[in-house]
Amino acid sequence: MNIQDLDLNLLVILDAMFVERKTTRTAERLGMSQPMVSYALAKLRRAFGDELFVREGNAMQPTPFAETLRDPVRRIVETVSGEILRDRSTDFQPFASTRRFTFCLSDIGELVFMPTILDAFRKEAPHATLRCVSLSPRELEASLADGSVDLALGYFPDLVGGAAYQQGLFEHPFAVLLRQEHPLIGNEISLEGFLQAEHAVVLHEGRSQEIFERRMAELGLSRRVTIQSPHFMSVPLLVANSDIITTVPMGVAKAYARMSGLRWILPPLDLPPIPIKQFWHRRMQFDQESIWLRGLIARNFLGRDPTERPDNPIFSAIQPEDPPS
User: Fold this and answer.
1) Is there a contact between 265 and 188 (Cβ–Cβ < 8 Å)?
2) Which of 6, 32, 65, 188 is the most core-located residue (most Cβ within 10 A)?
3) Which residues of the chain form CATH 3.40.190.10?
4) Is this model's pTM higher than 0.85 or not?
5) What CATH number has the domain spanning 3-86?
6) CA distance 44 to 11
7) Mean pLDDT value across residues 262-276
8) What are residue 279's DSSP bridge partners?
9) Residue 284's CB: how many other CB atoms inside 10 A?
């Protein structure tokens, strides 16, 4: 007999018959009518070519062949009920989880997100571990699809296909980073002074610089670019030891302003903010671990730029006061 020829729903009735030994009680157990159970038993008899159950007194006893089916049928029913059809909403217990969660972040993302995420994990999932990776758009799309990355956090304009779901979290502004004792710039800078100053430009995988450059092009503005680098790590040394300034996401500016000799001011032109989002693959939309993880991110970041929060140790107490607007 081929498996396509057998209605697997009948195995549930067969399993109940092994326990109840009566069609009436089997029907009550399964919430069915007695004629439906008798009809199902007749189909099973035809399928297996065996009586399966014969009446002895007030009960129906399994035939020797039926006895060979008892344990396999029980295992099948338990597997389907317990592993395939179980209620998965209660499966994942964050506090007991030892899972490793992988985030795709730029170096900015690590500065902005990780202190808050780490603190949240210590409270809600203290035994879980975190891993951060930085990937190209093509690598990120593939890693979200195969599950090797759980979430991408930050500015990822290339993730626009139907396979990637997204949720906006907050908008992140730009700031100008410069040395504390800059001879020409105080707590604010004019547009003319900004354009005439020497600039360092960071062209990194996070793509946020494109927003700034696009806005400059829209306004028909150009500035003196003295150096370009793909690394934010070189920025503080370059700026602290020269009159070079750089326009970077506020999180970077605030983090580096904690270093002696550096400070930040607001840019002299209207710049669109960086839209910060979380991204996940559509196949994870109803996965309980992913739902919890996305919820944790939303609870901590939705509408709340962490660089403006006094409880974030990376950005707290970085300057005596914010520069005037």
Assistant:
1) yes
2) 32
3) 94-171+276-308, 174-265
4) no
5) 1.10.10.10
6) 9
7) 94
8) 152, 166
9) 19
How far is CA 27 from each of CA 38, 72, 74, rounded to the nearest angstrom?
Answer: 9, 22, 18
Q: Could you please state the CATH topology (level 3) that the domain comprising 94-171+276-308 is classified under.
A: D-Maltodextrin-Binding Protein; domain 2 (3.40.190)
Q: How far apart are CA 87 and CA 82, in angstroms?
A: 9
Per-residue tokens: 237: 């040394």
**Burial of residue 148 (number of CB atoms within 10 Å: 0-12, 13-18, 19+):** middle
Asked if residues 13 and 24 have their Cβ atoms less than 8 Å apart, the reply is no
Residue range 174-265 forms a domain whose CATH class is: alpha beta
The burial class, CB within 10 Å (0-12 / 13-18 / 19+), for 75 is exposed
pLDDT of residue 324: 39
Spatial distance between the Cα atoms of 257 and 87, rounded to a whole number of angstroms: 50
Q: How far is CA 158 from the centre of its chain?
A: 17
Residues of the chain with CATH 1.10.10.10: 3-86
